[in-house]
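If you are new to this repository, start here. Below is one unmodified record pulled from the training split, so you can see the exact layout before writing a loader.
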Amino acid sequence: MIQPAKERMETVGVRFPVSDIEWLASLQVKGAVTPSDKIRHLIAEARRQEAGTADLETCLAWARDLVAPFNSHVRREELLAGEHSELLALLGDWLPLVLALCLAGDNSQDLIRRENSLAKSCFQLLEGVLRLGVSNQAPCYDPNVINRYLPRILELAEIIATARKSGNKEELHHG
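And here is the target side for that same chain:
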């Protein structure tokens, strides 16, 4: 656990329920061995989380760290099983970005700009998922997982395309 240079330390007595002490003892934190190390780590993480929402870059790093256990677990299991899911890889990359876009910056930020950024991210995800449907056998654990949900999306896309060609905006809202 890296501490800021020459920061003065104070001793604080704290009472915890036994279940919290057991949880703290079982908590695996790189570089933290003692309960004090682990508590300092948890405080540093809370501070980082609070400060991390100030700008997109810092928030994105925090969100990646938050999703890292999921991504690491998936990669580890894939290596063991000799399988890969492009869908989970796509989602593992997308989730930190959309989380950071939602949380980063001042809440009074221009909502139009935020909406545009989130829409762009959502449509990039949609495009990536649709690319997985190009083949009848998606590069996923279950090769049919995309095909199972694709017909509804294609039907919606067809309704939208038809309504736009005919100029019938009413059909878009009731289709």
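Two things worth knowing about this chain: The CA atoms of residues 148 and 155 lie 13 Å apart. Residues 15-52 form one domain.
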